[in-house]
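Lecture 7 notes: from sequence to structure.

We start with a single chain of 249 residues. Read the sequence below before looking at the structure.
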Amino acid sequence: MVTITDAPQPARRRLRKAKPKEVAPPAEPGALPMTLLTAVRPQPLGDDEAARSWLAAMRDDEDAIDAEVSDALVLINSAVHAHRVASLDGHLADVSPAHALTVRIGFGDGEALADGRWDEAIELPRGARRKRSELLAPQEKVAAILGGRDDLDAATGALLHARADLDAGRMRDCALQIRIGLEAMLADRETFGSSGQEDDLAALEGRRAITGETANEALRSALSAERAAELTETLRLAERVLRRRRAFG
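Now the structure, written as tokens:
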């Protein structure tokens, strides 16, 4: 069981637009609604002793924690994406542990878990959930963009979307975004070509054809495991170029 307490989601639009109304200043900030998301594995852990042993081992195994949270996010964000497509709501965002109020891993019985309750759980420290968002979007860059001193290039935006798609298991979407990001990066070598990027950019140039073929395949059908592995490696190289550019300007 992985439970993610996420930020409040926007309310569903009404068929008839409501008129704004005047409000009095509040005496104190009001409580905000929260969304509780729980991903439950169908396989039983055994009796209580076995479940407690599993949770104790999980507490000391960072790789196991990362895998558990990653699997849960694939399931949760698959549901989010399905709702986004069904409702044609492009502003419905994926769930991220880095933005969650709390992330817990634990166990319980079926009915309790369905109600967001558990028997025992561990809560992940917030410092353990610092991800790529903090690495690729430092405060200085945000301030420069908001102040009009810098802008977001097309490659970075597309590759960030590609990473979100990859982490959520949306390989077909990922293939299309990587193709856009790769073409934009190679077309803007003047921006990305400094600070010892030549080898990685050459490697990305060598992957240009296969990335285009993979994107074309993604338009027709699901991708094979081999194609998915190629996409993952291409994205890894492109992200390294982004990180080095950020570090060295």
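The chain is about 55% helix and 10% strand. Keep this in mind for problem set 3.
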